[in-house]
Amino acid sequence: MPNQITTTDYDARATVTEAQFDAIMARYLARSADAVRDLHGAPGVIYDATSRQRLDVWGTGSTPRPAFFVVHGGYWRALSRHHTLFMADVLAEAGIATVAIDYGLAPATPLREIVRQTRAAYAHVLRHGADYGLDVDRVVVGGSSAGAHLAAMTMVGGGWTDSLGIGGRTARAGLLISGLYDLRPLVDTPANDWLSLTEQSATALSPAFAPDPPPGTTAFIADAEIEAAGFARQSSDLRTRWSDSVTIGGTTVTGRNHFDVFLDLADPASELTAAVIDLVDAAGAHEDM
Questions:
Q1: d(C-alpha 93, C-alpha 58), whole Å
Q2: pLDDT (tens digit per residue) in 91-128
Q3: Residues in Cβ contact with 68 at an 8 Å cutoff, skipping those fewer than 6 apart
Q4: CB 272 within 8 A of CB 177
Q5: CATH number of the domain encompassing residue 59
Q6: Is residue 5 situated within a structural domain?
Q7: Which parts of the sequence belong to the Alpha/beta hydrolase fold-3 domain (predicted)?
């Protein structure tokens, strides 16, 4: 177990006031509704017959478009795909569709099942995305906080793709923002009240301890200037851990906190938006190899 963990290392809420948090969550939802209002797409697609969870596709056009497959945060227990579409119009202007997913929330849904659902959504996009106007050879995964953890779990190796019918096609490009990639410290935090992790299950569900992503994978690992210490440390640690096998980029976004940094994807001039566009190019380059 990692040593010298303080009670605030993984308390992202402590980095903002209650009023700030509520305002940012409201912006997620309102900006998302605005972003998709005039876009073509396929909302409410059931991607998994077992859980009946849904995804939305927005920003498609007359020809197949690359996709940003985005996973919401909320410490695995809150929010939805409807909070996670605020980048859709900006990316559509760049010729990129947005796919936002729901998953069952903790504690009713165990984290192992949340990971399975996220991977099932990704596999659904690869198998059926062409039906929705997507270029399934150019899919970039991404997310913030818990969503970054889940997106990273679609990038790692380990044979999980076989049971989903996409043999070997892990996500080869990902934007990971303010995520947690080693879940062991959460065993001794209040988050375990809804996650019910043991050290063994936390290790098994950590991207940091899964087989590395395959060669040819590209990741941009970002965090915010105002972060709980554990989140900032884990972004740095994953850049180091994956650097031997993955083409790594990254940044710490100045003037942003753990929650509002995600909204930089609604800004066409932001570094994170530029990263998505670059990752689409990297995904395409991999397919050309």
A1: 12
A2: 999 999 999 999 999 999 999 999 999 999 999 999 99
A3: 87, 91, 96, 97, 98, 99, 140, 142, 175, 276, 280
A4: yes
A5: 3.40.50.1820
A6: no
A7: 69-157
